[in-house]
Amino acid sequence: MATSKPAAVPEPAAESDQRATALPLYHRVYANLRARIDSDWGPGDRMPTESELVDEFGVSLITIRRALDELVRERRIERVRGRGTFVAAPPLERELTELTSFTDEMRERGLTARTELRRAALAEAGPRVAEMLGLPPGAAVYAIERLRHVDGVPLLIEQVEIPAQLAPGLLDEDLADRSLYDVLDARYGQRLVGGTEALQPALPTAKEAELLEQDRAQPVLILELVSHTASGVALEYCRSVLRGDRARYRFEVNRQRPSLSLVTDTSPHDPSASTQENR
After folding, report:
1. Global pTM exceeds 0.90
2. Which residues 6+ apart lie within 8 Å of 214 measured at CB?
């Protein structure tokens, strides 16, 4: 249990006193706890109880709860009903413009990735997916659903559709432990080199919340990706649902950039961001 108090960082007395009197009580408690999270406590450490914090800081329960609420809002801590309050793991920051294997990327970060194959079947492409893949409606596709875990915690649900005519016999492969992109490249000579991706926050369905082990009121990130080969053939449609508290995506921008066009449809169904990623 995380209960130790770190030594305060010495400051000039006048400056420190002036700042202390200007800050609300809850913010002083919040700042103290945040500093301890950053320096002394690690992900998964149990925080002192609210009553212990009341005794420690000599303030009201309302003040303690307001400070904790601020830390919850910043995703630095998480409350678990019946168990207590714990230091939260920092979100995984990923680049939307890099071509990397999910498993390899997690390994490089020192994290353990595990994939649960939930579905792998021959299906018919719906009108929207067919259009995105350049197929006639009802064309045969391989529908693959995988649940990705990182360090034992579910991170994302991945739903993929691949034109069956471009990868015959794909379902015979190990789609749980092997990279799908590696399989497409090694067996079929279909190397995916890039694509377009759209990202949008949303609330999860009841099933998505259950699989991701989160509350339905907690937002998720929905990514829709269409990947293509070097010759421009659209080979993969992928819809990913990510826990909003465990993932953060980073974009690099420059001042000199092409003019932006107005996007009138804000649904995640139209890919709008360039991306390259190995699944």
Report:
1. no
2. 204, 220, 243, 245
